[in-house]
Amino acid sequence: MEAVELVVAHNERATLRVGDVFLKVDADQARTDIEVEAMALAPVPTPEVLWRKPPVLALAALPGTALGRLGEPSTASPAAWAAAGAAVRRLHDAPLPPWPGRSVDELASGLDDECAWLLANDVLPADLVTRNRRIAGRALRPWTPAFIHGDLQVAHIFVAGDEVTGVIDWSEASRGDALFDLAVLTLGHQEHLGDVLAGYGTDVDLDVIRAWWSLRSLLAVRWLIEHGFDPNSPGCEFDVLRSQL
What CA–CA distance (Å, rounded) separates 39 from 48? Predict the structure, then answer.
């Protein structure tokens, strides 16, 4: 029998690896529904769905390795980062999925709540929260909806050499702001933004991407802390917020 590897686990979901099979256990089957449908719709490589027996989804492992990890320098080439940008562009140019995403008002309300929690619990200096809240506000504007991945962390794109072999973890896919995906992909890896945009192939508002870096980080901190992760690790969310100043 092959060894069972615990990839990630918290009180919402867990992912195990057994050989070349990933087993995802999710308490919310609506997220799994979205993941399966989004992978079927996305015009980029995704893991093969082997079987599904709620609450478990079995996926085939992708070839290659993750483009990078938050908090660690990426060893991927500039060409690999550009290939990731090109894959994201294909996704954003695809027909919209049939379900909606978060509205500007929902994001603004969530941002207010998270900033209030950060300040009330002295998680970060007030000036750091306030200034990043001001930066984040630039992302809260009307946008033309695109098919977005919704959680396009650098670890969710796999590459072999300079080619993208697949994109994983689609449970947050929806209609949304294309620049949000680009920001999440380069969060903590700002030095590769130029490579990503070279592959993406169109001009974007860099100030909005920077705004999403702040917004994403502010929204994530409480969840990370409550689920046993450390946003103060080198290169992670706290460092992103500090770098914005």
Answer: 9
Task: Judge contact between 111 and 219, C-beta under 8 A.
Answer: yes
Greatest alpha-carbon span in the chain: 54
Residue 23 and residue 60: Cα distance in Å, rounded? 9
State the residue range of the domain holding 154.
62-243
Are 70 and 187 in contact, with CB atoms under 8 Å apart?
A: yes
Domain with residue 233: its CATH number is 3.90.1200.10
Residue ranges of E strands in 85-151: 146-148
The rounded radius of gyration (Å) of the Cα atoms in the chain is: 18
Q: How far apart are CA 234 and CA 203, in angstroms?
A: 31
CA distances from 199 to 7, 66, 111, 194, 203 (A): 30, 18, 31, 9, 11
Strands 13-18 and 163-167 turn out to be: unpaired
H/E stretch holding 18: strand 13-18
Q: How far apart are the first and last CA of the chain?
A: 51
Is the pTM higher than 0.90?
yes
Quote the CA–CA distance of 170 and 34 in Å, as a whole number.
Answer: 7
pLDDT tens readout for residues 2-38: 788 989 888 889 999 999 999 999 989 999 999 999 9
Per the structure, the count of domains in the chain is 1
For range 75-81, the mean pLDDT: 97
